[in-house]
Amino acid sequence: MRSGGFDAGRGVLVATARKGRDPVCLRPSTPPVLAPRPCPDHVPLAPAQERMWHSARLGGSADWNVARAMRLRGAAVDVAALRRALELVVARHDPLRTRYPATDRGPAQQVMDPDDVVLDVVECGIGAAELAPAVAALAGQPFDLARDLPVRARLFVLGPDDVVLALVVHHISVDGRSMGPLIRDLVTAYLACRAGTTPQWQPLPISYRDYTLWKHEQLGEFTDEWSRATHQLRYWANALAGRPALLDLPTREQPTTPIDPVAGALLPISLDAATHAGLLRLAQDGRASLFMVLQAAFALTVGAFARSADVTVATAVSGRDHRLLDDLVGNFSDDVLMRVRLDRASDVDELLDQVRRVALAAFAHPDTPNPRLKRCLLQDAALPLFQATLILQRAETPRTSTEQVPAQGLSITEMPTGVIRAKHDLEFGLTDHYDQLGAPAGVDGSFRYPIARFDEATAQQFVARFRAVVGLLAGGYRGPLTVLLASSGRAGSLSTARRATRVLV
Questions:
Q1: Those residues with Cβ within 8 angstroms of residue 333's Cβ, 6 or more apart along the chain or in another chain
Q2: Which in 26, 126, 172, 349 has the greatest CB count within 10 A?
Q3: Model pTM score
Q4: How confident is the model over 194-237, as pLDDT tens digits?
Q5: Which long-range contacts (CB under 8 A, 24 or more apart) does 161-164 make?
Q6: Is the distance from CB of 167 to CB of 153 less than 8 angstroms?
Q7: Cβ neighbours of residue 102 under 8 Å, at least 6 residues apart?
């Protein structure tokens, strides 16, 4: 085997070959440029797409459907213009007209020519009481990624001046940040079509295929021991070796009638401005971020709930690490894992330092596809890589109204679909808010859980435990973790933790 090191005098990585051979100098190559490039015969999946593709092959395609609904009200709702606007948006964004077949070189992206696209768009009259079930049924229909376009739409006509556009896109072609440019472009196109003109869009600087080829050029091949892809895979295989394969969570008794395993429910959560400010003080003292503080509280709560001192939690990274990606529709995001060893931290400061280091290392290794990583770990491939995830995002600039009024006599608003999918056991989606002067204004969001695994009382207990831990940290507690871990995740333990806290704080 080779050994290597960094030669400070020459500024190169030196890989020393076996005895008797000359050393090999690996000079850093010029980073690939993100720019339009020729399209090869085979375009592989981007790393962020591989998990969805494999899940769909195993029958879980509908689990990754992303549903949105927009309500158009006014005397001038033009259904034909809305249909044409959808066609224009699909023509503008390649991932919306991409199929993902298996080939002899692996799964591939095959982008259809806009002229060959036949959208799955159906117009139907419907009553208000029938709307929610109809949207849920649409969101639950799986895509055949090898044959279908990853988008379908329904125009639910509630009346001559009231139309709901329900849009379902497979996650392999969009991520959370895609919905902003997608909805914006759709509104722009609709207003143009309604006026008999063409939308005045800025041309997209690159395509999703350009991004995919650029990303693979960055990462290199897993067969190359010096590639970035291999380096990241090696990091994760080492970081996760020996961890518990499955957390022992207090799940509900299985009902006699089977429940959809990803059917979910939400519980709201909010932290006031004072708690927000206290968490920021802790983050500043620990040279960390608000996200790292919340992730530490989350790891403590999961550890108490599962009665485990070795927990793996996760978060999502946007993957949009270049300004040219901002306005693209596509799937760039992926999960990164953070293994937190609660038994290796004696107090809050040591835990926060550990979480900070683990999080920074995770963010530096974001591109390893989950299916490939599973093959490197000594665990049943059917088990999930993680069961608990927390995502924190910054709120947008406050707006006076959530309703857009793009034209006289017409309103366009985004409305909830009522479709809740819970692919993970424990999932927080949080947003931090700041006032116009930048002062902390609170954190809010929701806790999502699968109803097949947890009843509402258990989910409420978990949220209450998380809030209690967050409150202690925000209030200045920096002592032993035993207080924060006093809850076992079972009923009645939260009051025990509070009594212990009053003694030790």
A1: 48, 175, 176, 177, 316, 317, 318, 319
A2: 172
A3: 0.86
A4: 999 999 999 999 999 999 999 999 999 888 889 999 999 999 99
A5: 161/73, 161/74, 161/75, 161/76, 161/77, 162/71, 162/72, 162/73, 162/77, 163/71, 163/72, 163/73, 163/77, 163/79, 163/82, 164/69, 164/70, 164/71, 164/72, 164/131, 164/135, 164/415
A6: yes
A7: 57, 108, 146
